[in-house]
Input
Amino acid sequence: MLAAVLTLLLLPVQPADLVIENARIWTDGRVGFAPFAAVRDGRFVYVGDYEPSLVGPNTEHLDAEGRVVLPGFIDSHIHMLNGGNNLSQLQLRDARDKEDFIRRVREWAGNLPEGRWILGGRWSTESWQHVEQPTRQWVDEASQGRPLFLSRMDGHSALVNSVALRMAGITKNTPDPPGGVVDRDPVTGEPTGILRETAMGLVSRLIPPPTLQDKVEALNRAMRAANAMGITTVCDIPGIADLPAYEALAERDDLTVRFLLYPTGGDWRRDAERLRAFRGKPGWIEPRGFKAYFDGSLGSRTAWMSAPFANNPPDNKDWSGLPMPIVTDGTFDRNARAAAEANLQVIVHAIGDEANRVLADKLLAAYGGIERLRAARARSEHAQHLAPDVIRAFAERGIIASLQPFHKADDGRYAEQYLGKERCAWSYAYRSLVNAGAVIAFGSDWPVVTQNVMLGLEAAVEGRILNGAIWFPEQSVTIAEALRAYTSYAAYAAFMEKEIGRIEVGYRADFVVLNASPFDLSPRWPDIQPDLVFVEGRKVFGRATR
Ligand SMILES: [Zn+2]
Output
């Protein structure tokens, strides 16, 4: 009561640092769309109708020109270091032909310091008019004396140049390593530059590991890329050995993304010590817990299912995937108890229904009861192929489903082949989870797939998949539910719901101004983009075209 009175008394006399005017501010139904909001000291101090007393001589004005304003997006599952690393590497995935391939290598090499490796690639020549296997001769001159290692798209082979072969001591006389092949010219017997499987290791082991500075730069690039998508907070999954890079980042005062860290560790009792010693930045870079893996993926048929895949080969009819060793050898149970004792959140990669079922049971056992488990907000990451009993267990036990809608768009093209139609009704089961009362949080899994939030929304709200079809639309959620999964629900999933994820008085002023409205009847999702992105009332992204 006293606080409310004070607020009323203070409001008119203290102008805001920033006001947002002429806006359509999404308040998640609290006051409809608000036209006006005010920010002071990095937090919203007012949301509602125009309030002239908040505008002083030094107040900054943001005229939204009628555009939609949303809370900054929270990406609940992302790999910022990997993604940032990829951004610093040569991309050849969409190279059109041999000339284009070579031209890009030459351009890239020209901008690299002497002696630096030319890395990246992810090339594929299968869609070219003239399908050709690249050779070292393609790139030797273009790489201008620098060593080169460019992976094929699937990562099972790589192109290297003559400099790299020389550094590795690979000649026509080098035998193929076990499990690998050094491709050779049929006439001369000389290596062609293509190394397959384990043979890639002959060269890749020479590539210097990223330094602390490399990692910090990768994180800077990843922050810029995230901001351009309207993302202002991430649940990031580094390795435990990457933590010093985040500590270095935490020394900066101009961060543009908040990081909640869930490193993949080994022995969580030991790793908990490391997290306790972590020098972060409250509200900006904080360790939250640990990530574990329960199974593999649908595409590689390594998801752990309760019944066999529909497209098993005849000699392996009963195959239903398998759990990771930590599930069966006691490691996870031990780790989960250690995390529970240390008050650290547990998030677990679980794709198949059996992986998710066993996860729900193991969590209950580790926390010793539903109330403690609910309070811990444990999460299933991906939670892709569920079943009614698993969904019920998630709802009852407060296990959060951390979902990546773009995976539905991607996998939806082939999931029925792998699972049959019946089981697909419980896959990417957003609607069923919400209806059951489970919390869902959305993310991207970048750089595995795009971090574009609008494409995620399209898949979640419309059920549209990458071949253009609408797939299991009965599992779609409403635009409001989908937005919450990227904002307030995602904040809850990271213990940040009192700080971020809403445009509401007291919340940190992280927000996005969009160029077009996602609330329109049939929005052109791929065309919707952030025009402006703010973090604590500070502009961190502005689209150049406006
Ligand atoms: Zn991931």
Observations:
- Residues 77, 79, 445, 448 surround zinc ion (CB under 6 Å).
- The chain is about 30% helix and 20% strand.
- Residues 212-228 form the longest helix (17 residues).
- The mean pLDDT is 94.
